[in-house]
Amino acid sequence: MTVTANATSRLGARELTLAYEERTVVEGLDLDVPDGRVTVIVGPNACGKSTLLRALGRLLKPARGSVLLDGEELARIPTRRVAQSLGLLPQTPVAPEAITVADLVARGRQPHQRWWQQWSEDDERAVADAMARTDVAALADRQVDELSGGQRQRVWIAMALAQETDLLLLDEPTTYLDISHQVEVLDLVRRLNHERGRTVVAVLHDLNQAARYADHLVAMKAGRVVAEGRPSDVVRAELVREVFGLEAVVVPDPVTGGPMVVPGRPWEG
Ligand SMILES: Nc1ncnc2c1ncn2[C@@H]1O[C@H](COP(=O)(O)OP(=O)(O)OP(=O)(O)O)[C@@H](O)[C@H]1O
Ligand SMILES: [Mg+2]
């Protein structure tokens, strides 16, 4: 299955192979991230989702093949230009010690700063906007390492948003969040996408959230893309079995009408 026929793609991978020393994790992968859409990557633990996202964000160099941004090899584009186009929130980001929330979010503005102008009104606005949208404004003066897991995750999302890039890569942005903050963050991602035309690639574990929020769903297994396309085309019981080894039924989501995965009966003894 492929992307809707006329979708263009600024970011993609060509025969991409990724490895950690001897261990190959992703092999010969081709991907076109559709512009102005929300792409969600799903797949079992250790199948290479984070590895792929890190390569798309230039945190990891391809062993073979390439990542292309606007037709250019990502590895050859100056760091600053990459950072102005592309924001990446890793799965487990590490904050500098004793940094406040406001200071961490402000770091998202670094790619936009110049030596003659360290901080502009634009920076101020972007930071305030990102903090308001992620509901962390009240935490501004707190230290990041003193926050709860969910608060910290929203602060990282705020930092990525403050970067105001056209392309946003988010690795499990909802993992530590309670259900209402999960929905809030995913709605926010959709809103950014719709109102500002942002292209988003997110790794999610919850298949039902993936089906609800993705325009384009990519299912990975053992470092390869097994299926991709619209959730309504891709999410089927056979795919869940093939990718996750899980027996499940797929029924219409009572709210959206899209596919909803319901795992088989729990163990009852
Ligand atoms: N820095 C590293 N050095 C060596 N091996 C690594 C490194 N990071 C990841 N790996 C290995 O690469 C494989 C893929 O890891 P990756 O983090 O991409 O998986 P994932 O699909 O994101 O999984 P999860 O759902 O658990 O986050 C795993 O076998 C992992 O052990
Ligand atoms: Mg991961």
TrEMBL record:
Matching entries from SMART domains are given as: AAA
Protein localization: Cell membrane
What InterPro entries does its record include?
AAA+_ATPase (IPR003593), ABC_transporter-like_ATP-bd (IPR003439), ABC_transporter-like_CS (IPR017871), P-loop_NTPase (IPR027417), Siderophore_ABC-ATPase (IPR051535)
Q: Is rRNA-binding there in the keyword field?
A: no
Q: Which residues form the ABC transporter domain?
A: 11-247
What's in the keyword line of the UniProt record? ATP-binding, Cell membrane, Ion transport, Iron, Iron transport, Membrane, Nucleotide-binding, Transport
Annotated signal sequence is: none
Pfam families the UniProt entry points to: ABC_tran
Task: Give the GO molecular function terms.
Answer: ATP binding; ATP hydrolysis activity
- A single GO BP annotation from the record? iron ion transport
Keyword Membrane applies: yes
Note the topology in the membrane: Peripheral membrane protein
Principal location class: membrane
Spell out the protein name for this chain: ABC transporter ATP-binding protein
